[in-house]
């Protein structure tokens, strides 16, 4: 187990080990998912990691005990700095989803997070849906289940983590039938218009919408179902919106957003956003969708998404897969996505462990 204290120094051997760890995670993700969409180039991950205003990080590699020992495990623990300062978000990758390697990585994550005074750690891991006749473990929310004997699940359970929630990872094959999108857009618009209208932008929020964009991001942190995950409101400001946009650009990614404006107040009250890597035209990732409380039930969710998918066709003509993650109990969001044609791929387990902080 080796903590990469010099990972940001590109001339130091730690930097090479960071790259090796990220490459291990790419191999594992591709083997599990059967496509390279989660193999974000190292340069992008590194550029993002170097922007440390809102998050600090620990990186660790687990390698064979030899001078050039093979890297068999990789760990990042991400620490929010401006809110949720009790949390550590864990990203662990063990070669072959091995139980013992995962146990070692989780123990290290726990030690590092506790040393920083963090009291809850959480991680999201990919699983196949439990097949008929297999043992099942239900999430604490009661929605979604996994097979607890799966090699990864076994590691989390052995380390005392709780399965708090599951998410459904789904893919929408692109491009989507345009007639269907036009029909959904027209049906939703008939309900929402003229009280609401749509606006859209790419990569940079228009100045006059910045405060509204920050408010919508903040609402994402409270209004999306989180079960008993120990998350508090994330504070978003116009400056943080710009910071996040600059971080995406630094990681060589773009984004498309469609928002719903309430015509009477002039405020944007809902948005949907997708991100995409410039270097890999086939993949697009749903980053957010929300309608503010008080404006729900007017079909804005479907209207914004149908409009975004129509714009995406022109903006990313080679896109083939739109990925999304939805809490298994989020019926309203899931019903919109199912209607649009999203297909379930994996169950994502949201694990949590409460810690006793070590004050050094
Ligand atoms: C998911 C979401 C975007 C749907 O937006 P929407 O524009 O309100 O969607 P719709 O108008 O199609 O309404 C969806 C359902 O909510 C119901 N609804 C009506 N008024 C509502 C209100 N005040 N609050 C909540 N739901 C309401 C509607 O009746 C409808 O139910 P039905 O399908 O049984 O008729 C919205 O519920 C939301 O922002 N949720 C919180 C954020 C979230 O979970 N985002 C997804 C993250 S993955």
From TrEMBL:
Report what the protein is called. Answer: GCN5-related N-acetyltransferase
Q: Which organism was this protein described from?
A: Jonesia denitrificans (strain ATCC 14870 / DSM 20603 / BCRC 15368 / CIP 55.134 / JCM 11481 / NBRC 15587 / NCTC 10816 / Prevot 55134)
């Amino acid at each position: 187990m080796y903590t990469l204290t010099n990972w940001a120094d590109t001339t130091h051997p730690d930097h090479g080990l960071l790259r090796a760890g990220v490459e291990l995670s790419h191999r594992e993700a591709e083997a599990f998912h059967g496509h390279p969409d989660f193999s974000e180039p190292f340069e992008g991950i590194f550029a993002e990691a170097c922007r440390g205003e809102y998050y600090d990080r620990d990186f660790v590699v687990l390698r064979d005990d030899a001078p050039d020992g093979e890297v068999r495990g990789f760990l990042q623990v991400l620490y929010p700095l401006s809110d949720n300062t009790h949390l550590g978000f864990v990203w662990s990758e063990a070669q072959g989803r091995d139980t013992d390697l995962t146990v070692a990585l989780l123990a290290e994550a726990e030690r590092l997070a506790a040393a920083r005074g963090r009291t809850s750690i959480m991680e999201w891991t990919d699983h196949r849906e439990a097949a008929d006749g297999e043992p099942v473990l239900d999430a604490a929310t009661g929605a979604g289940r996994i097979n607890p004997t799966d090699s990864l699940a076994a590691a989390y359970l052995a380390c005392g983590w709780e399965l708090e929630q599951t998410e459904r990872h789904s893919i929408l094959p692109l491009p989507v039938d345009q007639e269907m999108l036009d029909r959904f857009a027209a049906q939703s618009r008939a309900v929402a218009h003229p009280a609401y209208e749509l606006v859209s932008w790419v990569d940079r929020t228009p100045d006059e919408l910045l405060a509204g964009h920050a408010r919508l991001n903040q609402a994402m942190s409270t209004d999306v179902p989180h079960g008993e995950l120990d998350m508090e409101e994330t504070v978003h400001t116009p400056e943080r919106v710009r910071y996040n946009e600059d971080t995406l650009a630094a990681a060589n990614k773009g984004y498309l957003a469609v928002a719903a404006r309430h015509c009477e107040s002039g405020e944007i009250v809902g948005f949907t956003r997708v991100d995409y890597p410039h270097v890999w035209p086939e993949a697009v990732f749903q980053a957010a969708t929300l309608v503010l409380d008080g404006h729900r039930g007017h079909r804005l969710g479907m209207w914004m998404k149908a409009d975004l998918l129509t714009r995406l066709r022109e903006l990313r003509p080679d896109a083939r897969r739109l990925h999304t993650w939805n809490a298994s109990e989020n019926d309203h969001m899931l019903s919109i996505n199912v209607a649009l044609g999203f297909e379930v791929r994996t169950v994502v387990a949201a694990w949590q462990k409460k810690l006793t902080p070590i004050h050094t």
